Amino acid sequence: MKIYCTPQKGSENNYNQDLKVVLFGKADNRAEGYIGEQIWQKVIAEKINPSSKAWDLLSIALSVISADYAGHRKKSHDGWTREFEMVVAVIDKDFWNGQAFLLSKLLGFLTSDRWHFTFVDGGFQPKAPKSSEFKVIENDCVVLLSGGLDSLIGIIDLVAQEHNPVAVSQLVPGDAEKQRDFAKIFNPNVPHIQFNHNKKFPDSETPSSQRARSIIFLAYGILIATCLKNYKERKTVTLYMCENGYISLNPPLTGMRIGSLSTRTTHPIYLLMFQELISNAGLNVTIENPYKDKTKGQMLINCKNQALIKQYAHKSTSCGRFKRHGHKHCGRCVPCLVRRAAFKAWREIDQTNYIYDDLSIDTPNYAQYDDVKSIAIAIKEVENNGLDKWLGAQLNSAILGDTSTYKKTIQIGVAELKKFLQGYNIV
Predict the structure, then answer these.
(1) What is the CA angle 173-179-183, rounded to 5?
(2) 251: Cα separation from own chain's centroid
(3) pTM (predicted TM-score)
(4) Which helix (H) or strand (E) holds 297?
(5) For residue 256, pLDDT beyond 70
(6) What span, in angstroms and rounded, lies between the C-alpha atoms of 229 and 339?
(7) Residues 107 and 149 placed together within one structural domain of the fold
(8) Contact 83/70 with Cβ under 8 angstroms?
(9) Is the domain of 153 the same as that of 115?
(10) Which of 113, 251, 380, 390 has the fewest C-beta atoms under 10 angstroms from its C-beta?
C-alpha cells in the first residue's frame, strides 16, 4: 500500500498513491485521510517553540499511525504482514532519507510489517512565535502519562525523587479525564499537556491494529522535550516512558500468540533503536524506562509514595479491551491478569471493578477464556521445561547485551501470575 503524507491540500502530485493523508489539517476530499489538525493548534495555544527535527519526527509518527489504521492485515498475502510504501513530506528530506533503513527496521520490529520510506520536501512547521511571546518550560524532564497504573507510579516516583516533570498525554476516550485527574494530584507543579491526533481515514481497518501507537507517544514527548529550558541550553532532557519490564518484554505465552497478541510498544529493542534514531537527528533527548527490570507487582511494592498509590491505583486503566467493554476492566485479558497478579503481590485490596471477576467459574468466559488458559499453559511450560526453553529465541538479540536481568524479570512476572491463578485453582 502506497501512502503519501503531506500537510499540503490538493490532489495533484506524481506519487500514484493508494491513499493521501493530510497532516496537521483536514482533507477536502473524502477519498483522502487526515490526522493531527489539533496538534499544531495546541502547540500555538501553549506558546511553545519545538525544534524542526521534532516536527519532522511528529510528521513521520503521524504518517505511521495513519498507515497502521488504513492498512488491512486481512488483505495482505499471508493475512497478517502488511507492506507500506510511505512518501512523507518533511523539513529535512536529506537527513531523513539517510535514516530510512533504520526507521524501517525499528517499525518492522514494532508492527511486524514491511516499511519503505521516501522523504520529500514540504514538511510542516508552524511559524515560530516571537521570542518575547513563546514560553520556555522550566521543568526538568518529561513523563508520558497514559492513565495506566505504570505511568501513574512513574509520575508519583519522579515527584518523590524531587524531579519536576511535564506530563504529556494522548487523549484516549475513557482515559482523558483520569489523565487530568492524575496530573492534578501534583498541581501546580506538574503541567499537563494533552494532545489529540483527531484522525479520519476512508476504509479503516476494523478493529484497528494500533501496534504502532507508541511512536506517537514518543513523538509527543520529544516535541515537548525540545521546549524545555534545559534543552534550549543544550542540556540533555530525559523522557520517561514508564512500563513494567514483564509487559515491555511481553513474551508470547504460547506458540500461537506471536502475532497481534504480542505487542512491542515499549520493548527494549524498539526503544534502543528509537534512541539511535533521535540521537542521529541531534535531538538531545534520552528515553528512559526506569522500570524495565521490574514487574508490575514490584512497581506497586516499591512505589515511593504508598499513601498516594493506595488512593489512586484502582482508578487507573490496564485493560487491553477497555473500550470494547464500555470503559470497564474485563479482568481476564493478559494486561488485566498482570494487574490483578500485581495487586496480589502488593498485598493490598484491589478495588478495581472487573466484569469477569471470579475466575474460579469454569466456563469459557472465565477460567476457560483464551488469555487465562494461555497463561496457565505458559506457567506449566516454565515449570516443566524451564524458563529458557519457554522463551526460546525471544531475547536473542545482540542489541540487548546481557539478558540475565530481563530473564529474572520475566521469571518473577510468571511467579506473580502463578500465585494469582492459584487463588482460583486454575494452576
Answers:
(1) 165
(2) 17
(3) 0.95
(4) helix 296-302
(5) no
(6) 37
(7) no
(8) no
(9) no
(10) 380
Q: Is 409 in the same domain as 345? A: yes
- State the DSSP H helix or E strand holding residue 194, giving kind and residue range, or none if neither: strand 192-195
> Do 270 and 345 belong together in one domain?
no
Structural domain includes residue 417: yes
Which residues span the domain enclosing 325? 318-422
Residue with cell 518529561: 142
Query: How do residues 185-233 score in pLDDT, each as one tens digit?
Result: 987 889 999 999 999 999 887 767 678 999 999 999 999 999 999 999 9
Residue at a domain's end among 120, 154, 180 = 120
Please name the residue that has the C-alpha cell 519490564: 245
Rounded to 5 degrees, φ, ψ at 332 are -130, -10
24-50 as b/e, with b when 16 or more CB fall inside 10 Å?
bbebeeeebbbbbbbbbeebeebebbb
pLDDT of 401 over the 80 cut: yes
264 and 150 within one domain: yes
- What are the grid coordinates assigned to 70, written together? 488504513
109 with 157, same domain? Answer: no
The CATH number assigned to the domain holding 262 equals 3.40.50
Whether residues 328 and 284 fall in one domain: no
- Cα distances from 401 to residues 234, 240, 276, 297, 410, in angstroms, run 30, 22, 16, 25, 16
d(CA 39, CA 330): 32
**CA 61: distance to chain centroid?**
12
For residue 89, being part of any structural domain is answered with yes
Q: Which three cell numbers stand for residue 286?
A: 534520552
For the chain, how many structural domains are there in total? 3
Alpha-carbon Rg of the chain, whole angstroms?
Answer: 22
Q: Which of 302, 268, 265 is nearest to 288 (CA)?
A: 268
Would 213 be classed as within a structural domain? yes
Do residue 7 and residue 98 come from a single domain? yes
Q: Are 257 and 390 in contact (CB under 8 A)?
A: no
Which residues contact residue 250 at a Cβ distance below 8 angstroms, ignoring those fewer than 6 apart? 262, 263, 264, 267
199 Cβ contact partners less than 8 Å away, ≥ 6 residues apart: 33, 34, 35, 36, 65, 66, 69
